[in-house]
Amino acid sequence: MKRHSENETQLANLRYHTQGPDQLYIPIPFLFVTERMRDEILVEREVVIALAPQSTKTRQLELLAKYDPRVSADAFQSVLHLFEVEPKA
């Protein structure tokens, strides 16, 4: 039986990123990003960056910088506000 390292296990359990052909993790685009999703995406990014090999870390950071989940979450909140949908307390 093959033993998986903790790093492999963490990367295998990603929900918001997928591994591209060049070994970089690509954000999965979502039309709507809730505040909870935003927080989970940001935590997942920290894992991806922390576990990225030093040789690809700069490229990984550049790739992740192209998509900011905070902007998508803010846009989603604006849509909810536009339609007067109030978040549950």
Provide a compact summary of the structure.
This protein is mainly alpha-helical. The protein has four helices and two strands. It has a two-stranded antiparallel sheet.
What's the overall average pLDDT, rounded? 90
**Largest sheet features:** 2 strands, antiparallel
N-to-C terminal Cα separation, in Å?
A: 47 Å
DSSP helical segment count: 4
Helix content: 40-55%
Output the radius of gyration. Answer: 16 Å
Structural class: mainly alpha
Number of strands: 2
Please describe the structure with a list of short key phrases separated by commas or semicolons.
mainly alpha; two-stranded antiparallel ribbon; elongated; 4 helices; single chain; 89 residues; 2 strands
Describe the structure in your own words.
With 89 residues, this protein is mainly alpha-helical. Helix content is 53%, strand content 7%. The chain has 4 helices and 2 strands, in the order H-E-E-H-H-H. The protein has helices spanning 6-12, 35-51, 57-65, 69-82, and strands at residues 17-19, 25-27. The chain has a two-stranded antiparallel ribbon. A hairpin with a 5-residue loop joins strand 1 (17-19) and strand 2. Helix 2 (35-51) packs antiparallel against helix 4 (69-82). It is elongated, with a radius of gyration of 16 Å. The protein starts with 5 loop residues before the first helix and ends in a 7-residue tail after the last helix. 15% of the residues are buried. The model has no long low-confidence stretch (mean pLDDT 90).
